[in-house]
Amino acid sequence: xxxxxxxxxxxxxxxxxxxxxxxxxxxxxxxxxxxxxxxxxxxxxxxxxxxxxxxxxxxxxxxxxxxxxxxxxxxxxxxxxxxxxxxxxxxxxxxxxxxxxxxxxxxxxxxxxxxxxxxxxxxxxxxxxxxxxxxxxxxxxxxxxxxxxxxxxxxxxxxxxxxxxxxxxxxxxxxxxxxxxxxxxxxxxxxxxxxxxxxxxxxxxxxxxxxxxxxxxxxxxxxxxxxxxxxxxxxxxxxxxxxxxxxxxxxxxxxxxxxxxxxxxxxxxxxxxxxxxxxxxxxxxxxxxxxxxxxxxxxxxxxxxxxxxxxx
Length: 312
What we know:
This is Periplasmic solute binding protein. Keywords: Signal, Transport. One of its GO terms (molecular function) is metal ion binding. Belongs to the bacterial solute-binding protein 9 family. It is built from 10 helices and 9 strands. It is of the alpha/beta class. It has 2 domains: 4-194, Nitrogenase molybdenum iron protein domain (Rossmann fold, 3-Layer(aba) Sandwich), CATH 3.40.50.1980; 198-311, 3-Layer(aba) Sandwich (Rossmann fold), CATH 3.40.50.1980. Helix 7 (218-223) links the parallel strand 6 (209-212) and strand 7 (227-231). Helix 1 (14-26) crosses helix 3 and helix 6 (175-200) packs parallel to helix 10 (296-311). The radius of gyration is 20 Å and the shape is globular.
């Protein structure tokens, strides 16, 4: 199935109204070029915009010096509730291509792109065509399924292969370069995954349980044989009820869960209070933003280390 969309419909999101003037200033130039050779020249790097910081390293690993990558959501921000800025509008309008996760994660970005002043912006959804896990009891926040597929290395490899394909389509002269780089990066992900499986195997089976701040880790848990016991927040921006929290504390105690995993982009106070009530500790997991100075593999390696440390 074709995964590129030439977006030119009218936006429906309120935030776009505030940005429309900025979009008119930055998005009224000539239409998008078909590939690199017809643009500024063979030596011009492809201008690639990604929605999340975690995707930067994927695109850079495949593209190398032939790409210039910008992420819209800044490190530490919540992509579920992010509000785009005029600078984001300019970045999208200036891009040669845009990679988003899809699966309903970046609805704010879809609205931004759809109002790009008539520009034809090639947008690729990395999760399109992949099988998602249906969410339950989350007020249909993500009707297309849980969007955090990249936290399963198998899906991350699918993302990398699509990045390779799309960069090659826009820059045919670099196809061999992209293929070689993608092969190398996939091998790194596979080597990491083999190591990660060995680490998880050191956790006693009865302790392979996860309680997380929000529902970002079902793919991670399924891939590594961990049981998701519960989440603190049903969906970002919606506070759990006292009854919800009491039920989760009871479940933590019943299953003897030793640690509650929090995420740095969210205020930790609620999770810390719940952990204190349940008599357990907290530990950090990363979902959208890698640890400082790192990329996707550093994010995943840190998560494995923290899970093993917390559960073993």
